[in-house]
Fold GH64 domain-containing protein.
Amino acid sequence: MDVNDVLRDVNPAEVTNLTIPDFMIGARIWLAVGELQFYTVLGENGMPSLVEPSVVNPRDPSANVSWGFVEYTLNEAGIYADISFVDFMGLPLGIILESETTTVQSALGPEIGSVQNICNDLAGQAAIDGQPWDRLCVYNAAGNPLRVLSPVDYLTLDADAFDGYYDSYVDSVWERYTSEPLTILTQSSAGPVNCTVDPSTNLLSCEGDNRAYAQPTAADIFGCNSGPFAIEASDNAVHLAVVPRLCAAFNRGTLLLDDGNVTPTFPMNVYYTNDGPKNWYSAFVHRYEADGKGYAFAYDDVVPDGGADSAGLTASPDPEVLTIVVGGSSTRE
């Protein structure tokens, strides 16, 4: 592709069309209010690698630009596209997918003014529990919010942030499932799997799982890829099914609810309703999404069988048009 085919200046309320090539794997469409800086560096092997804008580097050339991206894969199987706020939420984006044979799919994304609203709510939560939720917000020189970092990304800037935040909650979860089983619905051939805490080891063990689970820290829960949630090459199918469902339940704060001993079962309106610790970033991102869709942590696609989609993943074997809505949705479903 010619560079002029992929770099476009678009004015407010203007529509532009772009034809994307087939066989794009793990691709991104970047959008920004202003100009983003991309560059390449040579590795030790002499091969160039692309350096993308970073939300956690205050000296990044694009640090004062509001931007976001849509992720997609387009290959012989069709298209898979989503909006993701796993790392941050900046320029509000939504997607609408039209195809030849499937119904129109959409993830409308954040509402107009959502970044400011989330920052206001995070500041309020910080005043309540003393945790640095307000520091997730990044402001420009004029004092206007540019983006909101996820807690796992903020931890790369302040490793001690949220230290101990989940400790009392995790202790209570461990206490509950010492005396009764936690049933993980693997939504696979493994079926329901019962998990219990062994008091002698303080590990949560699940039937048929090749490894047990130590108590997670806040960083483990926010990232879902460290501590007991780290995946190893030798992990079996049960372990691979338990990890996302267990981590999602911790983020959403459902494990101590009355029926939280079986997961995933709750609809979206029950997520983040517990009185204890939860991922407030994810809660507020979903609060200000027009339809509640869009990944706000790594395993946000964990839902009950037949449950409403919270991740905002769209897919079609015969796509025709992918529309990206920029600047925020004014429609709430």
About this structure: The chain has three domains: 3-111+310-326, 114-154, 167-276. The chain has a mean pLDDT of 93. The domain at 167-276 is CATH 3.30.920.50 (Metal Transport, Frataxin; Chain A).
